[in-house]
Amino acid sequence: MSNEVLESVRGLLPGIAERARSVDEKGRIPAETVRDLTAAGVFRMLQPTRYGGAEDDPVAFYEVIRSISGACGSTGWVAAVLGVHSWHLGLFADDAQQEVWGAGPDTLIASSYAPIGRLTPVDGGFEVSGRWSFSSGCEFADWALLGALVVGAEGRPVDFMTVLVPRTDYEIREVWDSMGLRGTASDDIVVERAFVPSHRAMRNFEQAQLRNPGRKVNTGPLYRMPFGTIFTSTVAASVIGMAAGCHDLYVAKMQDRIRLSLGGGRFVEDQFAQVAVARAASEIDAAVLQTDRNVREIHEYAVRNEKIPMELRLRARRDQVRGTERAIQAIDILFKTAGGNSLHRGNVIERAWRDAHAGSVHVANDVEHALSMYGRGVFGLKVEDNLV
């Protein structure tokens, strides 16, 4: 299915690119775009086949996300997070999957994973309350995956969980106004004392240990892969795609440019411009090659149903954050050498620069933290983190 999805998406890219400026200005992706991506099968790529999904190779999913992000950063970001949530739901108990996809395989799920919420144990599950920020594309979703802390009798946190909450149990507060990824409409989600049955709650520790309940029914290799690899690589793929798209636009726009200073002449004949393009392209290629290599290796372990070495999981996180860092370095090179024209608001290079930098601050792209985890592992120290 992956080739079909990619071909369908390529047909959508001119329209997505044409709407990119409007998306940035209005702060919203049009419903038409989400319908087109749904019809193309983007959101079903990582979804269980039991519920109409493709259970596709995650590397194929990342290629699709990079392509969309290259045309419009905000659209690519929303496609990435909504698309990866279909995989995450596959880790939950089957009762939860049935509640979401029983109504239709194209039901979308938003998220805000930060442990902002408060979970109080009650008969049959939990009561959850809280206000979560940065829920990208939440207006298109009927459910939300939310991070929350279980509070014990003494009022202290005793566990960290992710809970699945229906749209009827939360309110969306429109607060998003950012410098980049403006069109993602990453608004707040507010829940007040909603009941969450036990089957719609999953411990993050068990998820990191690959002991998720969904494996009992979704037995394919895709659901034997770590959240710390699949989710973080999805976020990185979007940023890398923004840099790749910026590079292509940069090359196209500079073909006919004439320098008005520094002796004049065609821009493309300037050695410094040539070096800049080469450096940026190399950074982007390195980002793609390393991240895809690691995910492929982890997928091969999952196919063989073998334990995934912690060394490989840590390497995947190392190269994922470095991939994001390389993408930012590439886009900074292009922005700097594009000259004053890149400063105009709405310029495609300026917009890509803003979007990529905004995406880079996501917690999954915390370079120092991920590199420190890798270093701890290399030195034989214990690594405890839910994003590995």
Structural features, described:
The chain is an alpha+beta fold and 388 residues long. It has three domains: 2-102, Orthogonal Bundle (Butyryl-Coa Dehydrogenase, subunit A, domain 1), CATH 1.10.540; 109-202, Beta Barrel (Butyryl-CoA Dehydrogenase, subunit A, domain 2); 225-378, Butyryl-CoA Dehydrogenase, subunit A, domain 3 (Up-down Bundle), CATH 1.20.140.10. The chain is 50% helix and 16% strand. The chain contains eleven helices and seven strands. It has helices spanning 2-26, 31-40, 58-71, 73-89, 94-101, 204-208, 227-254, 271-303, 310-337, 348-360, 367-378; strands spanning 109-122, 125-135, 143-151, 157-166, 171-173, 187-197, 201-203. Strands 5-6-2-1-3-4-7 form a seven-stranded mixed sheet.
Q: What is the number of independent domains?
A: 3
The major pleated sheet works out as:
7 strands, mixed
Strand order of the largest sheet: 5-6-2-1-3-4-7
Strand proportion: 15-25%
- Amino- and carboxy-terminal Cα gap: 28 Å
Radius of gyration, in angstroms, nearest whole number: 21 Å
Give the overall silhouette.
Answer: globular
Low-confidence stretches: none
Oligomer: single chain
CATH fold assignment of the largest domain: Butyryl-CoA Dehydrogenase, subunit A, domain 3
- Helicity range of the residues? 40-55%
